[in-house]
Structures are given as C-alpha cells and as structure tokens.
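REQUEST ID: PR-0412
SUBMITTED BY: lab tech R.K.
PRIORITY: routine
TASK: structure prediction, single protein chain
INPUT:
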Amino acid sequence: MLGKSFKIIEPKRFDLYIEDIHCKTDEAIIRIDYGAICKADLRYYLGARDKRTLGFKYPMSLLHEAVGTIVLNKTNKYKTGDKVVLIPNIIPNENDKCLNCVCENPQLGENYCPNAKFASSNSDGFGREYVNYPVTHLIKIPSNLEYRIAIFSELISVAIAAYRRIQLQGNETIAIWGDGILGYILCCVLQVIHKEGKIIAVGKHENKIKQFPADKHYLTGNGSIKSENIDVAYECVGGDSSGNAINESVDNIKVGGKIVLTGVAENYIGVNTRKILEKGIAIYGVTRSSVADFQKAIQLFRDEQFRLWISRLILDEIYIENIGDYYNAFEMELKNSKLGKYILHFNL
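STATUS: complete
OUTPUT:
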C-alpha cells in the first residue's frame, strides 16, 4: 500500500514522499492518528546540530511520539482497529546482537543498546500516514483511556526509566530541576509511585513551576532551597542552561547524594567537579526508555489523578491534512512557551 511521508531534507524544509508500505511477518501496519513534536525534532527542523551529523540524518521523517490504529497485522497479536502506542526504540534481532550488548542489564536495558534504532534519530520517525512496525514494539491502548492522552506515553516512559535507573528506598527527598514537560511528567510519576518521599520542584519560571504537583516549589537561584536535605536530584533542563542546573543541584544535594541527568546539551557545559568529588556525589545519565517502561506508563493511566495531571499538558489539536499544516505545527511549537504541547491530529 502507498502512504504519504513528510521528510526533513534541510533546515526548515520538508518534502512530501510517497512510500510503498510492506508488512513483514513480524510487523503490523499502523495508520498514524496523533503525533507530538519534541525538542529533538525542533533541533533537526532548525538544523541546530553540526553539519556533518545533519548530513547523515537528512532526509528523515521526524516525530517519535505517536499513537495509531492497526490497519493490517499478520501476527494476530492485534486486531484491525486496535489503538496502539508506538515504541520508538527498536533493538536488533536476536541473531544480530552487538558485541557489548546491554539489553539484559536491568540497570540499562535496550535504552543503551549501541545497535538500537530510534525513530527520528537514526531511523525514520512517525511523521507519516502509515508505518510498518514490529508488533513487539506496540502497546495496546485500553479502550477506557482517552486516546490522544496516550501520546504522552513516551515521555512518561522516559520518566519511569529515570526513576528506575537508581535504587530508591521510597522515602528520599527528591528535587527536580527544570520547569518543562519532562520535569512536570517526572513530578507526576514520582507522586504516584514514590508516595513516602518528598518532591521538590525547582524552575526558572514561577508560572510553570507552580503547576507541578510537588510538595515544595523553588525558583532557581533562590537560596532558601539550602534548607532542604536533598537525597536525589533530577536534571530535566537540557540545553546550555543545564550546566547551571547541575551545579545548583551539586551545591544543594547532601553528601553522598545522587544526580540523574536527563537533559541534552549540544554544547559543552561547565560542571563543578571539585565539589562533586568533595561530596562523593554519584551521577547517572538517562536516555530513552524500554518496552517495559512503556508498559508501566500505560498502567499509570489507571490512576485518575495522574490522568488529570497529564491531560493538562494538551494545549490544543492541530489538524494535519497537508505539508503546509505540518510546517505550521512546527512553527507553533517553536513559539510555544507554555507548559504543554500542541497535539498533531493526522488526517492525510
């Protein structure tokens, strides 16, 4: 079958491709219904990476946050019409494992497999009409869950991966640096699964950070945070500002504390290594998520309060009927300074 695809071929330029979609024996064909734009997509859209890297990436379909409807499935695992979340991180086949594969390591998993293919990074993303995809990397959306809210499953799964990356006892004081969507979602996840601990939110914008369901809120640079006895800090800032967030967490975390980095900085950032060493701080890096993380993300939607918190992130729907609508969606997300996302509703 034929399907439309929008591919970025150079900064701020998409071309329309017509693709022949084939379904292998272990795959299903999914019609993409909803998608969302993330910061990584915007970097490719703007060409905000070095030219050599972009030369390897273009042309490429963007978006790695998507849900869709099963159109064809040869495995009988799903029925035609089933609604599913697409997991963007695909690990190699069993007969194609890398020499240093970490997929079986419970602290790492397929998140860090060197041979993994990640949609809209080193493989085509979901900015397409139809996608042929391994059934092992699809999660069925419960019929009682509002369909479009499941678009946040990818970010929720990353928050879950960040939570499980370190061994928590359940009663720690946890501080989250960053007042963006990932920081907000991580705060929501922690409030559901870290019930005995204390959650602190630290951000630059008061109007955003006050929306976090945290126990305490602080503005970055506010010295009053020193009164908190922080066990674990999550950096969810990214970009050039992530250095300031990391150093502030280093200053305020207790001796022997743990810092988890989730934000991506394209440029080198300065970090106070002397204080890290003096305080014996452990630093972890977290990226992407696993199939199990996605499964837990869907399970979290059973919590009514959690669903309400996540639903607040939907700013509006943008209908995508042609390539012009697609351009407009990226331009709107570029200008977006609110806590939330525009959801792309595909009708190609």
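NOTES: The chain has a mean pLDDT of 93.
REVIEWED BY: pending
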